[in-house]
Amino acid sequence: MRICIYGTGAVGLGLASCLIKAGLDTDIIARRQTVNALKKDGLLRTGIFGDFHATAQRFGSYCTLDDVGRRSYDFIMVCTKSFDSAAAAKDLFRHRRLLGEAGKIVHFQNGWGNAEKFLRYFRPEQVYTARVITGFTRRKPNEVEITVHADAIHIGSLFGCDVSCVKNLCEAITEGGIECQISKSIEKDLWAKMLYNCLLNPVGAILGVPYGRLAQVNCTRKLMDTLAEEVFHVMKKAGYSTHWDSAEDFLKVFYARLVPDTAEHKSSTLQDLTAGKPTEMDALNGAVLKLARKYNVATPYNRAVYELVKFMEVKA
Hints:
- 45% of the residues lie in helices and 17% in strands.
- By secondary structure, the protein is α/β, with parallel strands linked by helices.
- The chain has 2 domains: 2-184, Rossmann fold (3-Layer(aba) Sandwich); 188-315, N-(1-d-carboxylethyl)-l-norvaline Dehydrogenase, domain 2.
- Helix 6 (186-207) packs across helix 10 (268-274), helix 8 crosses helix 9 and helix 11 packs across helix 12.
- The longest helix is centred in the middle third of the chain and has 22 residues, at 186-207.
């Protein structure tokens, strides 16, 4: 099985380490600084699943898809930020020969609405979606630390397509150190993660604290409770569903298991702001606001945290 990791931030490096460790033929597409570091010192993974180092000879690293040559891949795993989804889809379409006859795209991105950007160029049976609730932090261009882990990675189809084709990929990621499973309910999985991210990402970024601290104080718990109620209302109005029937049911699991399991993690939104980079707010609370406008649902709390983060983004 031949794999291409397209976009090598923290998530991309973490997933690449799993595939390389499992012995798969793996190529990485990344920015020049990252490629130079990978070619010089290889890829290093540390954290809760143990240390792993892959020398540069164990994988390919390239700056663009043009550099790959005449190779073809069974899977191209898109690990760019959500705001780069449209550009990634267009680039992959220009290089669609790399997918061969039966290759698949699997996007490992935060938020809602990414898959539709790939549907502009590819058939539904070519586009698969992953849900990740694992914390990755990039220490250096070629180094990633796995900080927290709440649940297995799930991979499925939002368009009702056969999911048996991703079985070998799931097994390889699992063999490489992070449990990964096929999901026949990936829409529900994604909205579960949307609920999780729309509460923790903006509030943690605004206040500059890890997830666990937000659940320890009554005022931030009340804020997150209200955010969850708004997201749930929008989700149902738009005709989507998740694994819980109400925001109250979700919040019980959120405070009892999800937050404790990731208590020390600082949100990717906070990490982006600290690094002076754009955030993924438009695919998180911003996606909720877009649906809210379409279905005429009031979401003042989501609007408030979204606008505050966008201000911080401009300031950064």
